[in-house]
Amino acid sequence: MSTPKTPVAADPAAGAEIRAVTDTEAADAPADAFAAEYSVRPIPAPGPVDTTPISTTPAAVEELDALWKAVVHETRTRGNDIHLPISLAFAERLCRAYPEADAEMVRVATLLHDTGWAHVDESRIISEGFAGDWRKAAIRYEHELQGCNVARRVLPGLGYSAAFVERICEIIDGHDTRPVARSLEDALMRDADRLWRFDQAGIALASSWFAMDPATYTDRLATEIVPELITQAAVDMATADLNRSNALLKTGVIR
């Protein structure tokens, strides 16, 4: 799957040729509206920010148990049975820090966002999805599309409305490949997806995906991933976790 192209015609009188632009270059009205509404970045948190180890507050949202059971198969690929529960715990904290967000939407989108990995060629996940310019890898687009298919398959039978399902799919579709968020709920899901990497379990698992030792990987978290975080609450959580993980794993020495 490749990035969609939109033909754009230049002024014929100028003799310019028609060129193609990617969808990330084209106007994105929802993203522009979100950026205008939340112009201060990272977005300040109006609610409490919990920076204690995530293992102390797992996401105990029992109403999601039926959804977890519906996607057990999808949790068995690419470490999703580790990644998704930890990400959901971070999503819960972010929702408390940003109470104006639709918490149910953030929770469901976070739980489902990477389920599409179970429906792509597993032999390509690491070699293509975690190497080179991995954000633009075709398999990244494929797993987003498949994640939307999972959402459309499992959510209606659990009582979620068609409109809710489509909003979930709008978040899942592009969560890795679209460079900007289109809503607060989208932003919180993206931050939760990144925050798990700063926990020791995330470092242990994700560093192997990128073929990096822990010290190199934590350096990457500090230089590349922290600047991507959209909310101040996420920055605070990531910074606290990274400090703890570096101390525990002795990355200042073992490098």
Describe the fold and architecture:
The chain is mainly α. 53% of the residues lie in helices and 3% in strands. It has a single domain (64-249), classed as Hypothetical protein af1432, CATH 1.10.3210. Strands 1-2 form a two-stranded antiparallel ribbon. The chain starts with a strand and ends in a 6-residue tail after the last helix.
Oligomeric state of shown chains: single chain
Distance between the termini: 38 Å
Number of helices: 12
Tally of extended strands?
A: 2
Q: Let me know the CATH homologous superfamily.
A: Hypothetical protein af1432
Please state the structural category.
Answer: mainly alpha
* Arithmetic mean pLDDT: 89
Note the main sheet: 2 strands, antiparallel
Rg of Cα set = 19 Å
CATH topology: Hypothetical protein af1432
Which residue ranges are poorly predicted, with pLDDT under 50 across at least 5 consecutive positions? 1-25
Strand adjacency order, main sheet: 1-2
CATH top level?
Mainly Alpha
Order of helices and strands: EEHHHHHHHHHHHH
Percentage beta strand: under 5%
Taken from the alpha-carbon principal axes, the silhouette is globular
CATH hierarchy: architecture: Orthogonal Bundle
Tally the structural domains: 1
